[in-house]
Amino acid sequence: KATDIAQHCALKKVRRLERVASLAPYGAPRRIFIVDTADDLQREAAHALLKTLEEPPASVLLILLANDIDSLLPTVRSRCQEIALRPMPHADLAAALRAEHGVDEFTANRLAREAGGRYGLASRLHTDPSLAMLRETAVADAERLAAAGRNERFDYAQTLAGRWSRERASVLETLDAW
Fold first, then answer.
1. Could you tell me the mean pLDDT of each successive run of 10 residues in the chain, 178 residues long?
2. By CB count within 10 A, which of 16, 46, 92, 117 is most buried?
3. What is the pLDDT of residue 7?
4. Distances in Å between the alpha carbon of 147 and those of 128, 140, 143?
5. Chain centroid offset of residue 175 CA
6. Which residues in the chain belong to E strands, given as ranges?
């Protein structure tokens, strides 16, 4: 039942995107739509989006974000231009952090290394100390669990799954740190 509800919501959002995309932009030359986690779209929602992808209005730019491009329907993928976003080289990221956030060289290099070349994560690690602590804890847990027995690993997985509905962002950060 929950899956049916999620599919219905996704389909409604795609239908709304189609309606809004058909309207002329107001106060700008284009309307830009970002479909986050497009690879999670159910088949029905992806097929509904296909119509807009095939014949987008001239004033519309659609950006589909996907972690696993192979999960997109081939018909959707064939109508898109793929742009692979790669992490920044650490030296470039450290220089950007020094210039834009005014951090010292040591901190900039540490943040660039911890973020794996991802500017957004490095920026958040700099501005949110609790995120850095969460990631340190997650790495320590991963190291401990690597040497732990199967039961302890399953217990931790169950704890993490239990936190999913209440603390989704925290769980995602934990998995990202791993």
1. 56 88 88 88 88 88 89 90 91 95 94 92 92 92 94 94 89 89
2. 46
3. 60
4. 30, 11, 7
5. 12
6. 31-35, 60-64
**Structure tokens belonging to residue 61:** 């730019």
- The DSSP call for residue 117 is T
d(CA 173, CA 68): 18
pLDDT at 1: 45
The rounded distance, in Å, linking the Cα atoms of 18 and 12 is 10
Q: What is the DSSP string of 93-112?
A: HHHHHHHHH---HHHHHHHH
> What is the β-pairing status of strands 60-64 and 31-35?
parallel
Q: pTM (2 decimals)? A: 0.61
Structure tokens that stand for 91 in this block: 């030296």
State the angle between helix axes of 150-163 and 129-146 in degrees (0 to 180), rounded to the nearest 10.
Answer: 150
Q: How far apart are CA 134 and CA 77, in angstroms?
A: 36
Distance CA 59, CA 133 (A): 44
For the stretch 166-174, contacts whose Cβ atoms lie closer than 8 Å and that sit 24 or more positions apart, written own/partner, are: 170/134, 173/131, 173/134, 173/135, 173/138, 174/134, 174/138, 174/141
Return the C-alpha torsion angle 55, 27, 82, 18, nearest 10: -40
